[in-house]
Design goal:
Blueprint (H helix, E strand, L loop, with lengths): L1 H13 L2 H18 L30 H8 L25 E3 L6 H12 L13 H13 L8 E2 H10 L5 H4 L18 E6 L4 E6 L2 E9 L10 E4 L2 E3 L14 E5 L2 E5 L1 H6 L9 E3 L2 H10 L5 E5 L1
Parallel strand pairs: 3-11, 9-10
Antiparallel strand pairs: 1-2, 3-4, 4-5, 5-10, 6-11, 7-8, 8-9
Length: about 300
């Protein structure tokens, strides 16, 4: 035992060749991980949220989609007895006439969420699962309507809600994006435009003011920000590998130097827990492929808050 310890000490203290090689491999691995996703020059702190001008308020309309899945989309938190009738009749065989409560998962919950979203109480895509975020939205509606703030939906709450909203459309029940689209920037209302909002973290492909397709996006960190302004698509590449980081950038549409809109496997896997090095990352590959086929060189790109 003492002999092995002595050999180890000599190896560490003298910096023998095997030890230096191992350290070299470790350093290279760390660099490779640090450069795993992005488009512009590397910089520390790339996993931070995109910087916003100091005079503006922090984004509040589009919270992290991964948080939605934990708090409002995970059936594992559901009580065993929490399922409810999907009929919006306002009646129930449950004590107290409760139609929906935390843990309920069915299409009536999806309609509930879509109706709450119409009147500004729910800011996610409907999931059909009644979690804590839905409960808070129901409580807010009940408070505004002068009803007891139970966070559960009984016949009275349902009747008030259906009277204050309209029957959701198919697009409202299953919207194109997890994040809610905000009002388009005025520069997006004419012509063919990739309208990209840092406020809602969405990309809307628009033609003459009409949204043709929409998808969730993420941006660069505060150290490698995605540039804001009006640009044009300079060139496109269905298959492209970053010349800086040697990482895939499928369906890349370059609009400002090395910055591009492109699919990101890292965004698809980690969501908003990561950031790009300046590019506009998209996590829905199929949807981006459809837009890529329509976008032409010279089409406008608007990046705005």
């Amino acid at each position: 035992m003492r002999r092995h310890t002595s050999v180890l000490k000599r190896t560490v203290l003298t910096g023998s060749a095997p030890s230096r090689a191992a350290l070299g491999r470790t350093a290279l691995a760390a660099v490779a991980i640090a450069l795993a996703a992005g488009c512009t020059a590397p910089s520390p702190g790339d996993a931070k949220s995109p910087a916003r001008p100091a005079a503006a308020a922090s984004p509040s309309k589009a919270p992290d989609a991964s948080a939605d899945q934990v708090t409002d989309s995970t059936p594992s938190a559901a009580p065993p007895s929490a399922s409810a009738s999907s009929s919006p009749s306002g009646t129930s065989d449950k004590p107290g006439g409760v139609l929906m409560r935390e843990g309920t998962e069915n299409e009536q919950v999806r309609e509930l969420q879509a109706r709450l979203r119409q009147i500004g109480h729910f800011h996610r895509s409907p999931t059909a699962f009644y979690g804590s975020m839905t409960s808070k939205a129901v409580s807010a509606f009940q408070k505004k309507s002068g009803l007891p703030e139970t966070g559960t939906v009984d016949g009275t709450t349902w009747t008030r809600l259906t009277g204050a909203s309209r029957k959701p459309t198919a697009d409202e029940l299953r919207p194109a994006t997890t994040n809610e689209l905000d009002k388009p920037d005025a520069r997006c209302l004419k012509g063919r435009v990739l309208c990209i909002s840092k406020e809602s973290r969405t990309l809307a492909w628009m033609i003459d003011g009409k949204v043709v397709a929409a998808m969730d996006v993420r941006f660069g960190s505060e150290n490698t920000p995605t540039r804001e302004g009006t640009f044009n698509v300079g060139w496109k590449a269905k298959e492209w590998t970053s010349t800086i980081y040697h990482t895939p950038m499928p369906y890349a549409m370059f609009f400002s130097g090395g910055q591009a809109v492109h699919y990101s496997a890292d965004f698809a896997a980690r969501g908003y827990n990561g950031a790009s090095h300046g590019c506009v990352n998209v996590r829905d590959k199929q949807k981006l492929a459809q837009v890529f086929a329509q976008v032409q060189k010279g089409d406008k790109v608007v990046v705005h808050w």
